[in-house]
Design a protein that fits this description.
The complex is a heterodimer. Chain A is built from twelve helices and 14 strands. By secondary structure, chain A is α/β, with parallel strands linked by helices. In chain A, the strands form three sheets. A six-stranded mixed sheet of chain A has the order 6-7-8-3-9-10, with helices on both faces. In chain A, strands 2-1-4-5 form a four-stranded antiparallel sheet. Chain A has a four-stranded antiparallel sheet with strand order 12-13-11-14, covered by helices on one side. Classes of the chains: A alpha/beta, B mainly alpha. The interface between A and B is medium-sized, with 35 and 25 residues.
Amino acid sequence: MIKVNNLAKSFGTKRAVDGVTFSVERGEVLGFLGPNGAGKSTTMRMITGFIPPSSGSVTVGGYDVVDQAIPARRLIGYLPENAPAYTDMTVYGFLNFAAEIRGLRGDAKRAAVNKAVETCFLESVLHQSVETLSKGFRHRTCFAQSIIHDPDVLVLDEPTDGLDPNQKHEVRQLIRRMGEKKAIIFSTHILEEVDAACSRAIIIDRGKIVANGTPSELRQKSDYAGAVTVRVSGVGAGAVQQRLSQIPAVKRVVLVKEDAAAVTMRAFPKSEANGTLAVSVAEAVQGWRVEELHTEEGRLDEVFRSITMPDTVTEEKK
Amino acid sequence: MSSWANIKTITKRELGAYFGSPLAYVFIVIFLLLCGFFTFMVGRFFQRGEASLVNPFFDWHPWFYLFLVPAVGMRLWAEERRVGTIELLLTMPITAWQAIVGKFLASWLFLALALALTFPVWWTVNYLGDPDNGVILCGYVGSWLMAGAYLAISCITSAMTRTQVVSFIVSLVICLFLILAGYPPVVNMLQGWAAPWLVNIITSFSVITHFEGFQRGVLDSRDVLFFLSIIVFSLFTTSAILRGHRAG
């Protein structure tokens, strides 16, 4: 549905987006990750046709967003950053306007507004002025606007920003549910959201895509991926370390925590270990009182940091 | 959907926004008070003993509009940019041109309403005497066109900035130039040192020069064209400015 081809945007001498290529199909939810100022919002603004690209192209449903802007925009629902809404209107008036400008009239309009109100839990503030709404309600009002015409493509710029944990959970569920039938792209810098809602994630840094894959693929890039953590009581740290180090597939062993009750150690595999490390570790610690043993899945935050800030991560390791 | 339907939707929203805020009512009250005060007190309507609205009423309009129209137009784009709703508006399935025309029309209709509410003045002059209502109608049409020209200039200045006050001041200065270029004391001064052809060019830019014909009841196509071309040119400039912002 969305095809982004070698997209670039410069503001003066600054290259905000630098040759980004990806595509999103129907049924996919693409998480767009990156540090602040990485070019996420600029990319989304180009996809929705708000700003023209310096070079490259975007097509939505086969329509070029610059040359065939109107048919392309009909397919898109857009939630801009900071969720702007006309402060001088009521929620109901605003949604009516959004429905009308999308070409809905009469019963179709009423049905669309009602459905959006229901989906976004706006009944209680329906006749309140947007100006007097709390941030969460204002956010949901703008979100309601973006889904009012049941678009095939949703572009959401930080859809959970400023919401409380319950609302965040609701919105993630909603995105995941709608993602079954639509092509959705949403930006965030909250990493749990990737797991909670995305079928695929892209990490963008300084205008370039630095990683692209499913959440578990991304996690594989983590040093932690495949490492085995074991918690043993009744023996000293030195003894545990010695036994673990003797396993051929282990690259290095790190002491995570040692207290009066138990010792927690983590063994990192060599690249050829292939996920069988847990068995070897379990054999190695036989005879001891094992309280916990598990394989690490890899951590997105660590992947994110090592990709977007490689210098700091290496320094910490030293 | 036709482009007219889009324009209508935008216009409806904008008009709703005017009447949803106190601005509309404050504006109308001030405009009517000014009209009444200047027509009956300063313009000495009763002492003149003429059944006409030319001098006592319409003469003041270029000056009222100087302050009031930039106040109506200043929020059109500045507010959209400040709040960020411009990003919503310009990613809707409408062209920027439709949004520009829709917003302009809303404000222009609002000014038409304010102007129409001066009907007691018209009613008074008809009660007291037997004026030529064709001339008066012509004056109203000219006044509305002039307001439209000011408004279109305010659209430009509003699109240039996020700050309404800046927009107000800049458009006031531009409109002041359009008035002064044909204001008799200034024209007399110019004639003292400038060549006649230069004076002619300068005065031809003035709203006063072009409004004069309407006041006398002469509907000259050149005057109509003058105001309409200011409007079209200004709206076109507005669209260029908006496109410039987005191109970065």
